[in-house]
Amino acid sequence: MSPQKKHVEIAIIGTGTSGMGAYREARKMTDSIALIEGGEYGTTCARVGCMPSKLLIAPAEVRHRAELFSQFGLKGSIPDVDGAAVMQRVRNERDRFVAFVNEDVEEFDAKHKIKAYAKFVDDHTLALSNGDSIKAERIIIATGSRPNIPNFFNSAEDRLITNDDVFDWTDLPKSVAVFGAGVIGLELGQALFRLGVKVHLFGAEDLVGPLSDPAVRNYALETFKKKFPFHSSGEVKEIKRVDNGVQITFRSKPDDDITVETFDYLLAATGRRANVDNIGLENTSLKLDKRGVPLYDPLSMQCGNSHIFIAGDANSDIPLLHEASDEGRLAGENAARYPSVYKRARKVPLGIVFSDPQIGTVGKSYRELSENGVDFAIGEVSFENQGRSRVMLMNKGLMRLYGDRDTGILLGGEMIGPGQEHLAHLLAWTIQMRMTVEEILQLPFYHPVIEEGLRSALRVLLQEMGMGPQPPLNCIDCGPGA
Length: 482
Description:
Belongs to the class-I pyridine nucleotide-disulfide oxidoreductase family. One of its GO terms (molecular function) is dihydrolipoyl dehydrogenase (NADH) activity. By secondary structure, this protein is α/β, with parallel strands linked by helices. Helices cover 30% and strands 23% of the residues. It is built from 13 helices and 22 strands. Strands 1, 2, 3, 4, 5, 6 and 17 form a seven-stranded mixed sheet that branches. It has three domains: 208 residues, FAD/NAD(P)-binding domain (3-Layer(bba) Sandwich); 121 residues, FAD/NAD(P)-binding domain, CATH 3.50.50; 115 residues, Enolase-like, domain 1 (2-Layer Sandwich), CATH 3.30.390.30. The chain is globular, with a radius of gyration of 25 Å.
């Protein structure tokens, strides 16, 4: 069959979360669409990201709670781990989530779907790996991302893996060296450790997940280092493939002696990189940043003033599913409306690390506020004596909230502690509604709940902004230690 040349109004490259969102929005306004996918259907989240990682974290958390039996006055033993059964459930449920996504894609109009890889020939033309080509009036780049693997790790040879590989395991390994103390490294490293795997986590510059507030970051470092081997600023001298695995030669601290440990695998959790380096962007007129990502407006997803839009992990902004979904819908709407392109207010930034204790970031970060010279006050609370947290033996944590001294508006916060996945959501909602700290404090707080710790931080923040009195200590309406 001779190569086919097709003309469409909108071409969408990629069918992940952002690509699917873009398709649904564009489909409302036009039937002239090419939805192009070269790989497997299904999102990063469902296949190798947020969902399978939580499937591994869940049994790890259950087993860890058994370690606290004696502190509750209970008698029992820590469950043995059937690694094959753990990973069987992870794979089964992962495949179930992927199937849901595939069912959505199957419902898309068949005439729109094209199974091939795409590469720019010029600003309007895409060459397909099947030999065909497409000319599109508007194009949406939604090509996703892949693990970023430093060349230094190549010495591990066949024992080098990424989180993309972990969820295909048929059994748990005996040992893993995890490199990268970001979200993925923290979550997988701690979960594997709690499931009985020998784990060492290697970080850099004392970074912990997304935290930028020095007080919260230092608290997190101290907490995690008590839970498992965590070399937050270690110096790795050599990575070497040996007969029984991969050998790591390192110093945990600059003045420590050299340590040599051997692991079954080296897990590279060193971030992800946008899949934009192999789609022919050099053949377009787009201006690119130093990472090779097109310059774009995050409020419209438009690349420069062009007819090309970019969404999701491909733009290397915030690689989270809810952000990719929002970006995809915005890109699809504007591509369909082009040349009328509208800006939309973005949702308040919200990030959660499902470690134990959990980490949450919301709104403006400490770094962002500091670098922009904002005059902000800080309200702080420890969860170590917070009533509900202490009852549950989950009383480890520190929350720091930031408020505008002039307006009293809550700006953001960084935190580690129990239930942060819920507290961060509450904070994000109030920030998006531009509520003042005083207004938030008028909302109902039940007793006894972890949220009382949030209220204590807000009361301290109100006082620090000069807009309220000194908070009462251990008052009756707060509850003990709230």
